[in-house]
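Tokens for chain A. Residues wanted.
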């Protein structure tokens, strides 16, 4: 059975991969090396000042670390945490196996709420576990941004409920 790795990208702009993203993807690479059947789902869409999906840079980064191309699925549809989650669900639709969510420690509460809502309200029956990565350049600012983003994410999930049901 395959394990699906969902790694959230962050706020950085293409082609630059910021320190938080590097932490997240290094953790994902370690998991991919340990779990030989694991597949990484790379999301994150078009940045504000560019036309190339940020997911391209993230996939390239993972491939440079020696992860084979067939173990990386790219879906650049996401533009924020909720739409990244929808892009992940779309990529793993009709495929079995647990999901490991990898993100920064300050992002875990919001991501946990989103995946828990999927389980409760949308009958998402897979096992989901979470791996938090370390450092952040501005921890207090980042944590406050995440706390204030939780209501927005909940509202967005309610607004996008038909889209979510369609990809599950």
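Reply:
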């Amino acid at each position: 059975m395959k394990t699906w790795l969902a790694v959230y990208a962050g706020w950085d702009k293409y082609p630059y991969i910021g320190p938080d993203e590097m932490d997240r993807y290094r953790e994902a690479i370690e998991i991919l090396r340990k779990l030989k059947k694991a597949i990484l789902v790379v999301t994150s869409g078009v940045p504000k000042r560019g036309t190339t999906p940020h997911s391209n840079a993230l996939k390239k980064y993972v491939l440079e670390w020696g992860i084979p191309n067939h173990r990386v699925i790219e879906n650049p549809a996401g533009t924020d945490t909720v739409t990244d989650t929808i892009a992940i669900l779309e990529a793993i639709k009709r495929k079995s196996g647990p999901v490991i969510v990898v993100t920064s420690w300050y992002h875990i509460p919001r991501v946990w709420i989103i995946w828990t809502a999927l389980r409760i309200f949308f009958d998402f029956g897979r096992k989901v576990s979470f791996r938090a990565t370390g450092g952040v350049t501005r921890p207090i600012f980042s944590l406050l941004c995440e706390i204030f983003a939780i209501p927005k994410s909940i509202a967005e999930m309610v607004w996008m409920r038909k889209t979510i049901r369609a990809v599950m």
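The domain at 4-167 is CATH 3.40.50 (Rossmann fold). The longest helix spans residues 139-159.
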